Amino acid sequence: MKKDIKLSEFIESLSSEAHVPGGGSVASLAGCLGAGLVSMVGNLTKGKKNYENVSDDMERLLSEAKRLNSHLFDLITQDMQAFDDVMGAYKLPRETEEDKAVRDQAVQHALKKAAQVPFETMKSALGVLKLSIDAAEKGNKNLVSDAGVAAHMAWSAIRSAYYNVVINANSISDEGFVNQIKGDSDKMLTESDELLKKATQISGSKLRGE
Q1: Domain of residue 143, CATH code
Q2: Cα(165)–Cα(114) distance, integer angstroms
Q3: Given this model, what pLDDT does residue 7 score?
Q4: Surface-to-core class of residue 194, CB atoms within 10 Å of its CB (0-12 exposed, 13-18 middle, 19+ buried)
Q5: Does residue 15 fall inside a structural domain?
Q6: What 3-state DSSP class applies to 33?
Q7: CB proximity list for 22: less than 8 A, separation 6 or greater
Q8: 10-residue averages of pLDDT along the chain (210 residues)
Q9: Domain that holds residue 145
Q10: Closest by CA position to 29, among listed 10, 46, 47
Q11: Whole-model pTM above 0.85?
Q12: Burial of 56 per CB tally in 10 Å (0-12, 13-18, 19+)
């Protein structure tokens, strides 16, 4: 998504018959929203009364959230481009054996990129999920609900991006690549489930005043 595009335009395009944006871009956007909420908690905690002892923690949180947000935002567009590249590769001529070989190579290259982009989304969103736990634990108690939402948005980004990793990996012939990216994705998915559980426990406990 270009930095000057309106969210309403993105949603309108998403709702249309256009192939892009799709689920991969939405996953990255979800990660951005989670990172944005983490930053909000950090900004409304840093330097505030009764939170002076976590100011340094909030500075680090804000720096990392900003970095992850920027990367996830770029991945929105990268996912669209990756899909366009796959479609372009499939449209290459296949009249001769040489044509077929060139097309197959282009398709496989494009599919790898299309799997790698959501994989990057998973990694960055996992970072956001970890930050959301810090936000819930150390951030302004009046914003614990926002930290909880951030955690769920990040987890949703991870789960959603996972689907896009797998659907592209299923068409890749390089078994080594497929085993690696699927294996690493499975590990992140498992870790994200545990992190979400922790974030939910922390935010839920604070919301209940425990």
Answers
A1: 1.20.120.680
A2: 8
A3: 87
A4: exposed
A5: no
A6: helix
A7: 14, 79, 80, 83
A8: 75 92 96 98 95 96 98 96 96 96 98 98 98 97 97 98 98 98 98 98 90
A9: 21-204
A10: 10
A11: yes
A12: exposed
CA–CA–CA angle 19, 80, 64 (5° rounding): 140
From the CB of residue 48, how many other CB atoms can be counted at a distance below 10 Å? 15
DSSP states of 48-93:
-TT-GGGHHHHHHHHHHHHHHHHHHHHHHHHHHHHHHHHHHHHTS-
HSE-up of 39 (CA within 13 Å, CB side)? 15
Would residue 14 count as lying in a domain?
no
**Number of structural domains found in the chain:** 1
Q: What phi, psi does 171 have (nearest 5°)? A: -105, 5
* Contact of 77 with 26, CB cutoff 8 Å: no
- Give the per-residue pLDDT at 55: 94
Instruction: Please give the pLDDT value at position 208.
Output: 87
Amino acid at 77: T
| Non-local CB neighbours of 160 within 8 Å, separated by 6+ positions | 23, 24, 26, 27, 30
Q: Is residue 7 part of a domain?
A: no
Query: Does residue 210 belong to any structural domain of this protein?
Result: no
**Amino acid of residue 65:** A
The pLDDT value given to residue 209: 85
Contact (Cβ atoms closer than 8 angstroms) between residue 110 and residue 89: yes
- Helix axis angle, 23-43 relative to 144-169, nearest 10°? 160
